[in-house]
Amino acid sequence: MPALPQPQPQDFDIATVLHALGDPVRLDLLRRLAVDGECTCSPEGVTVARSTLSNHWRILREAGVISVRTSGKTRLVTLRRQELDARFPRLLDAVLDEVDRHADIA
Amino acid sequence: MPALPQPQPQDFDIATVLHALGDPVRLDLLRRLAVDGECTCSPEGVTVARSTLSNHWRILREAGVISVRTSGKTRLVTLRRQELDARFPRLLDAVLDEVDRHADIA
Predict the structure, then answer these.
(1) Predicted TM-score (pTM) of this structure
(2) Which residues contact A19 (CB under 8 A, 6 or more apart)?
(3) pLDDT at position B2, please?
(4) Which of B17, B24, B95 sits opposite A91 (nearest CB)?
(5) What is the CATH number of the domain that holds A59?
(6) Which of A19, A53, B1, B59 has the fewest CB atoms lying closer than 10 Å?
């Protein structure tokens, strides 16, 4: 499978990144990636339909939040943490602090 | 005019706030409020249609980002900075840093 297109850090757009993060399912995916590191496109415990999940990954990838690589027949997803932190300092920390706090309470 | 409904800080939701901020026009409104303090619902230099602007204010208000009060026939908008900073530390700072940087370049 060819590599899926993703923006370069200099093309990251704050409105696009905030929009990508502004959804409860995508925030859950973000938290999993931050905790677990690389994961498959269908992480355990995520109960949304496959096509919906695929759409969420696309929105995150096109915003520059995640990177997708292929390994055999599997697609593996990672958070572009370092690039996001360099481009938008403190943003991911602020979001993940709240998402983690919420996960702890739930 | 009656006060327009807005959430209490304990009901602020991170996904809803990020979604509210994830739009270039709403980010511009946020920057103006952060710089100028209270402003009218039709700030100078904002060129979007009145109904579109009204919709942007509603999304920001319902997320808890702004507060709207009436003075005679005028609606005045303020950023709920203190409440947002208390609920989501560093989030607004991170977003405004980038929005300001972008405004400086433009």
Answers:
(1) 0.94
(2) A59, A63, B18, B19, B22, B23
(3) 56
(4) B95
(5) 1.10.10.10
(6) B1
